[in-house]
Write a structure and sequence with these properties.
Order of helices and strands: EHEEHEEEHEEEHEEHEEHEHEHEEE
Low-confidence stretches: none
InterPro entries: PsdUridine_synth_cat_dom_sf (IPR020103), PsdUridine_synth_N (IPR002501), PUA-like_sf (IPR015947), PUA_sf (IPR036974), tRNA_psdUridine_synth_fam2_C (IPR015225), tRNA_psdUridine_synth_TruB (IPR014780), TruB_C (IPR032819)
GO molecular function: RNA binding; tRNA pseudouridine(55) synthase activity
Mean pLDDT: 91
Family: Belongs to the pseudouridine synthase TruB family. Type 1 subfamily.
Radius of gyration: 21 Å
Protein name: tRNA pseudouridine synthase B
Keywords: Isomerase, tRNA processing
Number of strands: 18
Number of helices: 8
CATH superfamily of the largest domain: Pseudouridine synthase
């Protein structure tokens, strides 16, 4: 099995670890990982790496993500989604689309967001969700995230609730459940997610995602070189520089574009490494060639 990425359209009810286990069996290797967890309730794009491509995943996790979500105003839960237990809320029948639109500007741009209690963030070495489910009081610190897009797609009255479909584009580390919670809090009626579908991770969208059933019939990976070209800016090296990059040596006479890691390719088209600019020197982040 070649090194590369597998873009899965995760089904509902599966954990990200469940999907990794299934792909391990299909790929015939234990070396499979994923970039960015999806909750069991959520569906959509889950990026997996096979063999050497697992080393790309940490860098892919830093890219922007897009979601389609449904928020139910008028009820809060202890998990901020439909899988939790009711924890309050108020009648939302007096609210309309315009009321929700009025609070969205406060949640766009760079904001400080308190993650949902049942998140995968570690608190003293233990996942927050594990502590919460064990009955412990969990207090998480606010984190800086960026919301590029938060728009209403549709709104439907469902007394005593108001259901709102939204489109979200956000930085890594953003919790859409927390956005729902905060919208409900500002409007004073509580809220939680009833549906969440991730539609894009970096350059990988639903148009490139495969179902697990489809992968079982025809398992194929996106070659590691093609994956690197899709996800990162590319620099093609001459033979002398390629020889240095294969050994992870710093490049003193190369100015890389931007601040993010750049995919370095040899003159023969082989993917060699990820490098990033550090001051006047380009240094290796991960070497593959």
């Amino acid at each position: 099995m070649s090194d590369g990425l597998v873009i899965v359209d995760k089904p509902p009810g599966w954990t990200s670890h469940d999907v990794v286990g299934r792909v391990r069996r299909l790929a015939g290797t234990r070396k499979v990982g994923h970039a960015g967890t999806l909750d069991p309730m959520a569906t959509g794009v889950l990026v997996l790496g096979v063999d050497r491509a697992t080393r790309l995943l940490g860098h892919l996790m830093l890219t922007e993500k897009e979601y389609a979500a449904t928020i139910r105003l008028g009820a809060s839960t202890n998990t901020d989604d439909a899988e939790g237990e009711a924890s309050g809320g108020g009648d939302a029948t007096h609210l309309g689309r315009a009321d929700v639109e009025s609070v969205l500007p406060k949640l766009r741009g760079t904001i400080e967001q308190v993650p949902s209690t049942v998140s995968a963030i570690k608190v003293d070495g233990k996942r927050a969700y594990a502590r919460a489910r064990a009955g412990e009081a969990v207090e998480l610190q606010a984190r800086t995230v960026h919301i590029n897009r938060l728009e209403i797609v549709d709104a439907r009255s469902a007394p005593p609730y108001l259901d709102v479909d939204v489109a979200v584009a956000c930085s890594s580390g953003t919790y859409v459940r927390a956005l729902a919670r905060d919208i409900g809090s500002v409007l004073g009626v509580g809220a939680h997610l009833t549906a969440l579908r991730r539609t894009r991770v970096g350059p990988f969208g639903l148009d490139t995602a495969r179902t697990l059933e489809g992968l079982a019939d025809d398992f194929a990976v996106l070659d590691i070189g093609a994956a690197a070209r899709s996800a990162f800016e590319v620099v093609t090296l001459d033979e002398e520089s390629a020889r240095m990059v294969r050994h992870g040596r710093p490049l003193h006479d190369t100015r890389l574009p931007g601040e993010a890691p750049v995919a370095m390719f040899g003159p023969d088209g082989a993917f060699l490494a990820l490098y990033e600019q550090r001051g006047e020197i380009a240094k290796a982040v991960a070497v593959f060639g």
